[in-house]
Amino acid sequence: MPPASPSSSSNAPASKDFPDLPADSAAAAAPATDERVEAPLVLDTEPPRTLRFRDHFALWMNLGVSLIGFSTAATVLGEKGSELSLAAAVTAIVAGTAVGTAMLGVAALIGARTGAPAMANLRGLFGTRLSYLPTVLNIVQCIGWGVFELLTISAGAQTVAHTSGYRWLFVLLAGALTTALTIWPLGSIAVLRRFVAGAVAVAMVYFTVQLGRQGVPDPGAGNWKGFLGATDAMIAVSVSFVPLAADYTRHSRTARSAFWGSFSGYTIAQVWCYVLGLMALLQSGGDPDKLFDSFLGVWAGWLFLLVLVLRETDQSFANVYSTAMSLQNLLPRVDRRVLSGGIGVLTTVLALRIDKFTDTYSNFLGLIGSVFVPLLAVLAVDYFLGAGRQGWDLSEKAPSRWLMLLPWVLGFAVYQFIAPTAVAGWWTDFWTSAQRTLHFTPQEWTSASLFAFLVPALVTFALTPLTRRAAQS
């Protein structure tokens, strides 16, 4: 269940720059906002409140379906020869998505209440200057994933066109469309709701029926070993959108619609996407490189796959636009259109120069992603139970709150201690050495994501008497 909606007496406005959204019970009395109004150009302007449940649902449903999701279903299934049973894999997809998307929904709800972008909310948690650290990390990961999405779109277009050439053309077209979407973000969300969501749903239904008719083999019948690892992977996929959520839900009419729209839309779509990817993977002999052959093998499969390829631009749109929103935390008076245009050009140029991501860089993105699980825990506890109850200071002069770094860093250490990210040999050696020193061996039940959320959440809660007094002084 989502946290209860705030009342005007229990949650004061976060700051004069980002006035809180009224409680849901009073939302109907708020003046209607022209849906043609766009997102503000600079950071300190109050955002228009135009997005309803259906807008959030459509946006997050589209973001929950991805070509990457289809291909990475292999991470859930497990290694060749030790695959999970079909029942275990599907259960891991459902459970991991539900837990991870609940975390996403909390971040979405906070953005709806404060009216601030995701990284600007961290001013309230850490203070303005300290918020620059996670902001820079988010910029790096968003640019990296934006490039990765353009590469995925171009590869998908080549598959549909049955060609290994013209990659540069597909990258340019995808980059141009992505950049255009970021210039009119609220208008783009309206287009997703009115046109794209329906087309994606039709394509998903078509592939589900066609692949289901062919039957799905069960290579690991009865095997549940590795279930929690697969669940952990699904949590991580959902949580990857946590540092982006408030960039969109700040425009929500109500906090309730922001939570339930993001939770329901993303959960349904990601579960469907990964289960469909699992079906295609098993029908292609478990080879991820041949997965899309299963889609193209059905009648008119190329047409419906083309729909999904074109839709993938909403993924690159989200990464590029959120990069611009993160940059505005550093450069609050720079026009977001300038930032979006510049980031769109940068990601396109990088995608033209990069053929594919190396394993090292992919792991590096995963390392940065592991930062945001404990960060959300600290953010949520402090907002609902700590200093946020009196209202965060989100202004440019918000004082540094050094104490809040402690649970965040501790949570990151817990994550890496349980599941070290293979970015470099020395990094992995450091954490495995720590495991040996403390006589710790990761077990089936030691979920890196859940423990990295639980530990900093408890530490932050323990610190709330100190943080509340500091906020009041």
Strand and helix map with partners:
Blueprint: H1 24-27, H2 53-64, H3 67-71, H4 73-77, H5 86-114, H6 118-126, H7 128-161, H8 167-183, H9 185-213, H10 227-239, H11 242-249, H12 255-283, H13 291-296, H14 301-311, H15 313-330, H16 336-353, H17 359-369, H18 372-385, H19 405-418, H20 425-437, H21 448-472
Helix pairs in contact: 2-9, 2-12, 5-10, 5-11, 5-12, 5-18, 6-7, 7-8, 7-14, 7-15, 7-16, 8-15, 8-16, 9-12, 9-14, 15-16, 18-19, 18-21, 19-21
Describe this structure in words.
The chain has 473 residues and is mainly α. It has 21 helices and no strands. The relative contact order is 0.18.
Specify the structural class.
mainly alpha
Tell me how many strands there are: 0
Instruction: Figure out the total of helices.
Output: 21
**Mean of the pLDDT scores?**
87
- Beta percentage is under 5%
